[in-house]
């Protein structure tokens, strides 16, 4: 009986493992893009007085690069905790919409697995998982998603720590052009999600509204305003005529 169970279970384990490696393979280019950007963040955080232990602790618990850059920019001694928390919540508010977009693909998962997967969600793992789920059907492959998401998570946490260690030696690493890595990664992601001009209209609305808000309104309001305007535009154009 034991041998039979092992035989029946083995293909499932191999399938999950192969899906994990498939996710890792697809995330590899993004992981390489993470490295210079993580070094920039770690270096900046070290210059603000955060230790090589505190930096990966911050990035591991929060795992959202935009809000971490905002928090480091606002960091003082002593820190204005409520201001930093408020800006972090504001910048991360896009995750509400991202999670809602993934939810229909995760209905087959138990809640404990779905919530665990969402902890590792960032812009890049969300885009990779969403694109694969829509391409292969209406279900998110948990093995594939976690293979991509955990790889990105570990890359980000490890290299922000390396940046904190190397920052005092290298100085401002932005002079090497490292800060251009993240925009390049996003352009590649957008190219992979391109479905034509008509489907891209909400992107354009989000871009224009977000840019105008950035220029006219202080703070990080351009993030939720841009995201919500894109959602509203997508809803408008998706309505039957």
TrEMBL record:
Domain of life: Bacteria
Protein name per its UniProtKB record: Branched-chain amino acid ABC transporter permease
Organism: Pseudaminobacter soli
Broad class of where this protein is predominantly found: membrane
Entry similarity comment: Belongs to the AzlC family.
Residue stretches spanning the membrane: 81-102, 143-164, 176-194, 214-238
Keywords, sorted A to Z: Cell membrane, Membrane, Transmembrane, Transmembrane helix, Transport
A GO term from the CC aspect: plasma membrane
Keyword Metal-binding recorded: no
Keyword Cell membrane: yes
Membrane disposition: Multi-pass membrane protein
BP GO terms, sorted: L-valine transmembrane transport
